[in-house]
Recover the amino acids of this structure.
């Protein structure tokens, strides 16, 4: 399995929406390589005929009757919001300047 | 009297309440006084709700005076790990990103505590989002082990385990994703149980890895864990992975086990969970406990689970994948921290997300999110996540094969006693090795208990004995655990307790 480069970590951090500064990248990148190296030991352990397990219980979809049940009020749902307006979450702009 | 109340088990307190020998207000006040006296040194709690707990205690006493207690544990106070949503009480998950957040609803297990009348003392410290084995990854500072304040209390639920060990609470709730109930239990000399996956509702538990997480009891005795497990367990329509069938009789199994007869029981010692790297004092207490099981009538054999050697690597792929996805919800939009990037005029939502997640998450959380993002990314998915899922199947098959030969499997809970705070903080691999023996149960969804097996000769610190049972056979943990506990108590002449002078 491949080693993970500093540039790759920077890219992954962008994908994961975390701003990492240079010092953090220097710190985390080598640690991730060590972790990846140590988990690489499982490659080849399971043959192609082994099915994957995503979950310990053999559950499929769980349905319930489509009935109205009590739920949070708008005030409760918004109680932890960093900002709200007219019973809605107020968020920073989601489009670029050019749009 | 006040000091005695903090030393009593939950079962003893319930009996004393039923007999009218004490009140919930007296018990709750004694716990709050104890917290005030020792928690400055231990730091088991992130938030103490003295007024709320006393009001709940007074209401409990009124119910009992009217002859209408809600449950056997009505009036017995409890501490709750800060990863469980509590309406009206802060819930931080040990993270800056949730600092000051007060949930508008209760986790199902918390609702069950309230419905049974247990006063909630407060919220306990933990590794951030339950990621860690030492509670050092809490954004609010580490918890200290009551046995030696310079050492770790285990993790991620070090706060709940330390609170119970230091007699700050008779009961606590924990959560266990790879050992976060059992390993802290082992290093603090307390009892902790990870129930069968799906046996206890996860609704309102802030998920780290939802195919592995499970809520469970943290106590000082096996019987207390059984009482609490029966209270919080059972089907919950709000959790689609909750098992829709009744629990086996856990309290009954604990009482039966305490009688000390294990005739006909077959115990398997897991070959792969011993050897190099296992502390001699931990192994010595483990071997002595095995002898006590034999004396109680059990047959002990060795059982090999060859794929357990791959459990740690499997876990450290599956868990970060699930965690990176679960923690995407902390996006600075709907709740929690919102940080505006410096020097950016009119920042976009994405820029705010990036700045917030950098400021709000600690190192270990960032490591795991990035690792999970990598392992799930196109081109690597099959090699990492896909491979790990297949090995997970092999580990579950090892359990199936082993449980065809024996009724329960046993091992030491953790390879060593509590290590020094700071010792492994910047060495993730060394930290991860603590969970070697506890992780297989989470991968397969089977239940496990850790109970104290004594003090290691080298350092005088507690060691843990782990019992694992097949899925849905949680009652076996209590039968075997209670039998071993009563044999050990007879040997020790009383329960283990941290030296009082260490707590000041």
């Amino acid at each position: 399995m491949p080693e993970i480069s500093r540039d790759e970590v920077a890219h992954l951090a962008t994908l994961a929406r975390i701003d990492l500064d240079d010092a953090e990248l220097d710190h985390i990148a080598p640690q991730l390589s060590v972790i990846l190296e140590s988990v690489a030991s499982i490659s080849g352990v399971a043959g192609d005929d082994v099915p994957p397990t995503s979950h310990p219980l053999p559950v499929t979809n769980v349905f319930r009757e489509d009935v109205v049940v009590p739920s949070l009020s708008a005030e409760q749902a918004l109680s932890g919001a960093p900002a709200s307006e007219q019973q809605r979450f107020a968020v920073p702009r989601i489009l670029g300047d050019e749009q | 009297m006040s000091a005695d109340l903090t030393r009593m088990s939950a079962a003893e307190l319930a009996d004393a309440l039923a007999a009218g020998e004490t009140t919930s207000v007296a018990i709750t006040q004694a716990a709050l006084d104890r917290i005030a006296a020792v928690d400055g040194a231990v730091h088991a709690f992130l938030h103490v709700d003295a007024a709320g707990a006393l009001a709940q205690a007074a209401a409990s006493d009124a119910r009992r005076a009217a002859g209408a207690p809600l449950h056997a544990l009505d009036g017995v106070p409890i501490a709750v790990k800060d990863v469980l949503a509590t309406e009206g009480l802060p819930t931080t998950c040990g993270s800056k990103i949730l600092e000051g957040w007060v949930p508008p609803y209760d986790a199902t297990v918390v609702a069950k505590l309230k419905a049974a009348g247990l006063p909630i003392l407060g919220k306990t410290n933990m590794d951030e989002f339950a990621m860690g084995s030492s509670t050092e990854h809490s954004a609010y500072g580490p918890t200290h082990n009551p046995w030696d304040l310079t050492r770790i209390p285990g993790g991620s639920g070090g706060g709940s385990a330390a609170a119970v060990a230091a007699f700050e609470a008779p009961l606590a709730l924990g959560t266990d994703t790879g050992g976060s109930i059992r390993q802290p239990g082992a290093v603090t000399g307390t009892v902790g149980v990870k129930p069968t996956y799906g046996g206890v509702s996860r609704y309102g538990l802030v998920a780290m890895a939802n195919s592995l997480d499970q809520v469970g009891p943290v106590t000082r005795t096996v019987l207390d864990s059984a009482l609490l497990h029966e209270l919080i367990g059972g089907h919950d329509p709000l959790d689609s992975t909750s098992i829709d069938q009744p629990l086996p009789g856990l309290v009954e199994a604990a009482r039966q086990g305490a009688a000390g007869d294990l005739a006909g029981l077959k115990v398997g010692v897991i070959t792969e969970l011993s050897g190099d790297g296992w502390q001699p004092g931990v192994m010595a207490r483990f071997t002595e406990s095995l002898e006590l099981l034999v004396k109680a009538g059990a047959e002990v054999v060795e059982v090999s689970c060859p794929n357990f050697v791959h459990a740690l690597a499997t876990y450290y792929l599956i868990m970060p994948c699930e965690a990176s996805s679960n923690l995407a919800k902390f996006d600075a939009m709907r709740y929690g921290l919102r940080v505006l990037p410096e020097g950016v005029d009119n920042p976009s939502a994405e820029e705010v997300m990036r700045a917030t997640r950098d400021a709000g998450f600690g190192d270990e959380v960032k490591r795991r999110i990035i690792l999970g993002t990598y392992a799930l990314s196109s081109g690597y998915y099959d090699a990492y996540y896909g491979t790990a899922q297949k090995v997970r199947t092999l580990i579950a098959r090892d359990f199936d094969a082993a449980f065809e030969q024996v009724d329960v499997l046993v091992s030491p809970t953790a390879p060593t006693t509590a290590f020094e705070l700071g010792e492994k903080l910047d060495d993730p691999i060394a930290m991860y090795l603590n969970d070697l023996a506890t992780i297989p149960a989470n991968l397969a969804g089977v239940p496990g208990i850790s109970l104290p097996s004594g003090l290691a000769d080298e350092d005088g610190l507690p060691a843990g004995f782990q019992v694992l049972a097949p899925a849905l056979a949680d009652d076996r943990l209590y039968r075997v655990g209670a039998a071993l506990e009563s044999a050990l108590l007879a040997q020790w002449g009383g329960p283990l307790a941290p030296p009082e002078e260490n707590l000041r």
Remarks:
- Chain B touches chain A through 70 residues (CB under 8 Å).
- Residues 2-308+393-497 of chain B form a domain with the Amidase signature (AS) enzymes fold (CATH 3.90.1300.10).
- Chain B has a mean pLDDT of 96.
- Chain B has one domain: 2-308+393-497.
